[in-house]
Design a protein that fits this description.
- By secondary structure, the chain is mostly helical.
- It folds into 2 domains: 97 residues, no CATH class; 77 residues.
- 52% of the residues lie in helices and 4% in strands.
- It has 9 helices and 2 strands, in the order ααβαβαααααα.
- Strands 1-2 form a two-stranded parallel ribbon.
- Strand 1, helix 3 and strand 2 form a beta-alpha-beta unit.
- Helix 1 packs parallel to helix 2, helix 6 packs parallel to helix 8 and helix 8 crosses helix 9.
Length: 206
C-alpha cells in the first residue's frame, strides 16, 4: 500500500492496526507538516497503477489530489516515470490540472544540446567528488555511457554516481572507464568486464 509505504519509508513511522485509506493519507499530511516536509517524490510511479483495480487507482489519484490541496499544509508532489504515467494522471481531470508535466526526451547524441548536457553533468558530478573528468570527455565515451543507460537521463546520473563511488572506494586518483564498467556490471549483475565501456563493438550486445 502506497500510503503505508510512505509512512514507513518516508517518515520512519510504524503502522499498526486497521486504518482506512483516508486515515492513512491524513497521517501522511499530518506528519509532513510536523516534520516540515514540503514535497514527496514517487519514482517509477507508473508501477503503482496496473496492480490496482479501477477503484483502487481512483483512490490513489484522489489521495494525491488531497495532498496537493490541503489548506493547512499543501504538499508538492513529484511523480516520475515513463510516458504511461501521464495517462493515469490525466484520467483524473482535477489532478491533471494541479500537476505540470515535464517530459524528458531520450538522450540523442545527434542533438548538440544533449551532448553539452551530458558533458556538463559528468564534469559537475566528477568535480563534486574530487575527480577530473577531462580524460574521459569524448564522443566515444558518451556513446558508451548513453547506451549503458538506455539513453535515459536518470540512469546516466545513477551510473555516474555509482562510478564515482567506486573510484572513491578504490582510492584511485584518476577516474577511468574501469570504474564505470564495475558500476555497470554490479548494477546489472553481469560478469566482470562485460560492459559497453570495455567491449569494442558494444552496440550489438547492449
Amino acid at each position: 500500500d502506497l500510503g503505508v509505504h510512505t509512512l514507513r519509508e518516508g517518515f520512519a513511522l510504524p503502522t499498526s492496526g486497521r486504518m482506512t485509506q483516508r486515515e492513512i493519507w491524513d497521517m501522511v499530511g499530518f506528519h509532513a507538516r510536523e516534520q516540515g516536509v514540503h514535497g514527496i517524490h514517487y519514482d517509477e510511479c507508473q508501477h503503482i497503477f496496473p496492480k490496482k483495480s479501477a477503484e483502487g487507482r481512483a483512490m490513489i489519484l484522489d489521495s494525491f489530489k488531497s495532498l496537493l490541496k490541503k489548506p493547512d499544509w499543501p504538499l508538492m508532489l513529484i511523480l516520475s516515470g515513463v510516458d504511461e504515467l501521464a495517462s493515469h494522471i490525466n484520467s483524473e481531470e482535477q489532478l491533471a490540472y494541479l500537476l505540470r508535466p515535464v517530459p524528458f526526451r531520450e538522450i540523442s547524441l545527434a542533438r548538440d544540446a544533449d551532448v553539452q548536457e551530458l558533458n556538463r553533468l559528468c564534469f559537475a558530478y566528477a568535480d563534486t567528488a574530487g575527480f577530473d573528468f577531462t580524460p574521459l570527455s569524448s564522443m566515444d565515451f558518451y556513446r558508451r555511457l548513453s547506451r549503458a543507460c538506455s539513453y535515459r537521463w536518470g540512469l546516466v546520473i545513477e551510473l555516474l554516481i555509482d562510478a564515482l563511488v567506486e573510484a572513491s572506494r578504490s582510492k584511485d586518483v584518476r577516474l577511468g572507464t574501469c570504474h564505470f564498467c564495475r558500476a555497470f556490471t554490479d548494477r546489472n549483475s553481469l560478469p566482470s568486464g562485460y560492459s559497453p565501456f570495455t567491449i569494442e563493438d558494444f552496440e550489438p550486445l547492449f
